[in-house]
Amino acid sequence: MELLDGKQLSQTIKEELKAETAALVAQGHRPPHLVAILIGDNPASQTYIRNKVKACNFVGYRSTELLYDTSIKENFLLRKLRSLNADPEVDGILVQLPLPKHISPTKVIETIAPEKDVDGFNPINVGRMAKNLPAPLPATPAGILEMIRRYGLETKGKEIVVVGNSNIVGSPVSILLARDNEPGNGTVTTCHIHTRDLAFHTRRADILVVATGVVHLVTADMVQEGAVVIDVGINRIEDASRKTGYRLVGDVDFAAVAPKCSYITPVPGGVGPMTIAMLLKNNMQLYRAHLGI
What we know:
Order of helices and strands: EHEHEHEHHHEHEHEEEEHEH
Structural class: alpha/beta
Mean pLDDT: 96
Oligomer: single chain
Number of helices: 10
């Protein structure tokens, strides 16, 4: 069994982007610029934004945080997004989810210009992804693909089972692993809450991707020997032995499942760190397209 070390791999990617940014600035170009919008004081969202800004600083990007109270009007936010769309100094825009109930995430996602959609959520970019055309990919699915690519894992013709069909992870990763691409060309089955006999499907998987937010949903009897298991789940469970009072676990029962695997992601330290790395990679892609370099 070998760990798919997302923490180390994400650091490698950030080092590559740091060198790329330095080279571009040395050629006389401005650095890439990412604008992150946070509404409210959700602690998890604050942490995500803080980590994204820290990562931008590390690779040499310019980053701007726009912080708003939950009383912000939807129309004000949409006007701000249109202003950022028109700003030639801005390359990537993200709005941290979840949003207050009075603001439509669909309207927000559709208002961000596709050419500045660093999260890859705009319907135009989702369509381009499905058609195997160049587009910024949703960061977590992109991180999964990058991990598969850099570890040299074969997907062509493999039985791939994705548990979870969200628009953020499950559905896009299913599309990406089925596309005529590398990695890709897998035989992909997408499972979800309505799937009958989940274990029947997961036991067939050469590669199993789990993204449900259900603690230890996948147990040892649900995985075949030698499978590759990619656990996207990040769940808090109580742990009195920890200073925080909790610890993070995945959707897969790691201790029981890992001995059966050829490769498996740890939680934490697996897919999570890859998400920010791929967001930065998306921003570089948008920046280069924006400046034509």
